[in-house]
Amino acid sequence: MSAIFEVPSATSSSSVPLVEQSDEQLLLRYRDGHERRAFEELVRRYEKELYSYLRRYLGDATLAEDVFQAAFFQVHLKCNQFEADKKFRPWLYTIATNQAIDAQRRNKRHRMASLDRQNAGDGEQEVGALVDLLVNASAAPSSNMEMVERRDWIRQAVADLPETLRSAVALIYYQGMKYREAAEVLGIPVGTVKSRLHTAVLRLNEAWQRGSLSGER
Prior knowledge:
217 residues, mainly alpha, Rna Polymerase Sigma Factor, Chain: A, Arc Repressor Mutant, subunit A, 66% helix, elongated
């Protein structure tokens, strides 16, 4: 995946290799010196991570790639708005999340976002963490098949959460962000992030218990 737009290039004035520089340094080098290679290094760093987040958030690989490109195009357009004392990663995720929301609104036929992964083998650790949190008081699964079914249930249940709760789960559990970082991305107080995450876990746990009582699993 590569950027779909051309950016100006300039000769680097620093002897420090780009791969050893922070995200913030790279963006400032691009903003102030129009160094194309600095911008390309940022795209490379976040290509897998951000695309993976968007793939989970949107539930559509093609749409996720389009939004990835749109997000970095916005980085290109808004780099002058970046504050030097801020962190690049939350700023990027804010842009990407807003672009994802806009894409969903434009795509009338797009179903509700799913956090399911394209490869069933991916994300076992992340989904497993949710399983442990939700059902740590229940009996251990009797087989690998039962664990797979449990993980599938978690994925679908998370996808069915309201957008405000689903985004908190996606950023904290799947992306491993700290509460402060997630708060910056979502533009809400840290306390609200914690409250949404707590509510999401309660809802998932209640749904799990209802399913256990009704014998649906």
